Amino acid sequence: MATDCPGLADLIARLDRSVDAGDVGAVTAAVKNDLEHVLGSRALVLPAHLTQARPDVYARRLLHRDPAGRYSAIVMTWGPGQGTAVHDHGGLWCVEGVVDGEIAVTQYCVVPDSDGFFRVSPIGALLAGTGSAGCLIPPTDHHVLANARPSAPSVTLHIYGGDLDDCRVFLPATPDGRYAETLKSLSFHQ
Predict the structure, then answer these.
(1) How far apart are CA 101 and CA 147, in angstroms?
(2) Residue 182 pLDDT more than 70?
(3) Alpha-carbon distance 163 to 8, whole Å?
(4) Whole-model pTM above 0.90?
(5) Which one of 69, 132, 136, 171 has the lowest number of neighbouring Cβ atoms within 10 Å?
(6) Are 184 and 58 in contact (CB under 8 A)?
(7) Which tens digit of pLDDT belongs to each residue from 60-113?
(8) Per DSSP, which regions of the chain are E strands?
(9) Cα 116 from Cα 95, distance rounded (Å)
(10) What is the distance between the alpha carbons of residues 97 and 40, in angstroms, rounded to a whole number?
(11) How far apart are the first and last CA of the chain?
């Protein structure tokens, strides 16, 4: 957890209130409002060690874990050309905000097909810029995130409704365009 982070105490206080807002729709709406306020006002200043891009993969670093286990805050840094496969959020709600840069977000519909494969279809896309945030509520939480900047990193902040230790990833697997599901274990980078 980062302790040298101006604005973190305010963000934690806001999140502590918001995660008790009621049902998952009310919680994600409140957390989205928190992120948009904190990121839009640039009140949260992340230390450099949390925002350094990695050359091999996007970086995933813990900012804060709620002691009661209600949520976790993860900073992700995306180098040029870096992105995810189609994935879910392990059954957790999530609110994602852009700290710096631009992130291309493509939402997908994932439907089981025969032989254990899946049909995966894009259903929407947007370009999210600094200060913006969006909500994902299972089971309609499949998407791809990618850095939209061609020559600079982008940084995002993800608030999950617990600890996201693994997620389902969907990868192209058959000549007719069906996808295979794999369970991906998630860890943190230094």
Answers:
(1) 8
(2) yes
(3) 19
(4) yes
(5) 69
(6) no
(7) 999 999 999 999 999 999 999 999 999 999 999 999 999 999 999 999 999 999
(8) 59-65, 72-78, 86-87, 94-100, 102-112, 118-129, 133-136, 143-147, 154-160, 166-172, 179-185
(9) 30
(10) 10
(11) 11
